[in-house]
């Protein structure tokens, strides 16, 4: 039992410390070796005694690697003024008895493993000046009782698990100068009571859950020098006099909040400011010119906001700046030539993901202190300065995704110069326009180099033979170039390599067995080359391999069984080679394998039963081989999503257990020798997910599979008339069969005559397949679209469905429009679209690559058109993302400028079709779903199924097709005169384009439920201009990157006025497309200074 406050003596201090020691564990057992009766108490390690009473006044055990718990006996040291147990491993809780230390001024228990709550009894320590409890595991809330410690000057409770809200009682700590609560889970708003802490110099509330606007109370801290509020939920804008109210700030970190508005111009009055961060907010406007006065600035971070304007000129005045982070800010324009002379002390320069243009300033080579140069994801042009090699301390060079280079031989000269940068660890210049050969001097780059990427350029020649000299290399990315030659044997020296990507080049020769020396390799992509020979068995040594993809080459021989020993494999792709032999039994050891691609080889034999042991399998693709026998037992692969065993020699029946696979979305068993009754449960109920054609002995199944019925066999019934009946039946059957054959023959003859006549008429039309690249078969397209699976569908139109496909021998994805020949007018639509494409070419038209006129595997006519693929989908999905599946939705909304650019793109292509082709063409179906966006959000008009050469107009044909197309798809967009029998014309396109503009900037379809009767999208918009334009505008436009003070009302009014004049009811009153184009371009030049989007 502890003694009360009186009665403590020298001896009670000794007993208290010995009790304290008994609860301690120390690894070396020497620190507290003096703590025994053989030594005087005041000579014990860490103990300080008072001169008068020889009582313990100080205990300093910091950093002694002590463990155990803190004994309650510590509360008996009644003369204790300073207790320091920091930087040890004490566990347990802080004993309540610490509150008995009424004389204590300094209490340090930081950097331990203490748990529990902060004792409320600390409020008894009324003389406490320093309280350090940070870096523990303390929970609960901040005790309101701490508000009674009015002499407290330093309070640090950061890096714990504190929660709840900040108690208002902390406002009583009027002596407080430093408050640190970083990295807890404290939430709510900052109480106004803390405004009384007017002596505050250091305030750190970062990495919590605080919310509300920027705390008004902080504006009262005129002495504040350090303010850290990053990683919270603060919102709203900062006061315009922010800098005047907090003039002494040296560090201001407000990143990772939800702040809006502009940077206050008054920040320029903070003459002592050295560190400033507003990164990861929603701030906007231009960086104020007053920033130029912050001449002591060392660290400036504004990344990931919605700023506007050119690169801030004020930054050029900050000659002391060492760290500049401005990625993803929305800045445009070029960097000043003297950049490196004006900012000579930079260590980190990060300007990635803006819209910067122009060249890389050569003066960057004058920044001798530069460690990191990252200007990727911009629109820079010109060459990469070889002078960067003079920056000898450079560690990171990131210039990827620009337009650097000129496709010429000298583009890679800078690589040789970089050999002077001995600390260089990363070089990433992929996705540019770099041409020429990889210089042999690249092997002299820094021995510290771990990442080298030259991907997606126009680099030719071969990989230098001594590439193996870069022995620290962990990632080498050379894919999507035009490299030739062999893979050097020295690659086997790159023993630290984890990622080697050489895909989509023109490399040849054998894969060297030395590649097996790279035992740490995790990812090897060599697909889409011309490698020959066999797969090296040494790959089995790569025991950490996760992704192995060497498909689409010219490899032969067997699949090495050694690969099946790499149990870490997640992805194995060996498809489209000439591999022979069987699938090794060892495949069952690949327990982590998710995707297996062996299709389009020459493999044979029975599929091993061990395939059923690959329990992680999701995709199994073995099509176009010569596998035979039964389908192996794979009932345990319950997570499989796609199975393709088509084009093999498999026999036996289809396993019933496949119907139980709830994740299975695609099953292709076509063109085998399977037989028996089709299952009808599970996936087999959906004929769009199951493909079994080409198995002549299958029967039953759902109707859509079009299999023959299964007839039950019944035993014959014997009677006295059985012989006679048998003869009669035979005679009748023969007669009926002959009549049936004659009937079918006559029908077939008529069909052949009609088909010949139809094909003859098509072949005599002005369009022929010869106008395109090469002919494709139905089988080619079926394989390229995974059997026309739903998973490949990217859209549908009036006459058919559009699939995403990868054609044989192609590197890029394409779009395949398959026409539904059962719909009346589909053939005419096919011919019309081809006719329209024959002689036209414009950068804003989707490019037609080739076409297919073939017969499917069931003898039906098949027509398809193959277009370039638009990765950003249709304008429709960007305007109405709520109507799209969540996985397909764009990650953001279109800005006002991006919408204006798209409108200009569509207007310019219509102007071309109407006035600049050999014969005027009306598209007849302009709407958002027919406007596709490429990876740079450039618009491309598609779908010419209704298009008409106006000099060859056939009225009846047009309206038949319009009807058969289903007017539903174009209601609201079709010109009103079409509904009254008017002929298709360029004026009809202008009307549709006007409606398109109104929809793009209002966010409302013309078929919206708001509209009906006399209320149309046109009238709705017209009635709102100009006073209520913001009421009808798509609200997402108003929150996406507009600078402060942008005249959005005037800009939107002018754009919508163009739309209204395009969709006037009378064709004679509509704008011409040439006029609309000019007006829209004029609007862009006026409000955006001709600025396009980031990649345009």
Automatic annotation (TrEMBL):
Cell compartments where the protein resides:
Cell membrane; Membrane
Q: Which keywords describe this protein according to UniProt?
A: ATP-binding, Cell membrane, Glycoprotein, Kinase, Leucine-rich repeat, Membrane, Nucleotide-binding, Phosphoprotein, Receptor, Repeat, Serine/threonine-protein kinase, Signal, Transferase, Transmembrane, Transmembrane helix
The segment(s) forming the Protein kinase domain are 788-1088
Q: Which GO molecular function annotation, any one, does this entry have?
A: protein serine/threonine kinase activity
Which InterPro entries does the record associate with it?
Kinase-like_dom_sf, Leu-rich_rpt, Leu-rich_rpt_typical-subtyp, LRR_dom_sf, LRR_N_plant-typ, LRR_R13L4/SHOC2-like, Prot_kinase_dom, Protein_kinase_ATP_BS
Family that this chain belongs to: Belongs to the protein kinase superfamily. Ser/Thr protein kinase family.
Task: State the name under which the record lists this protein.
Answer: non-specific serine/threonine protein kinase
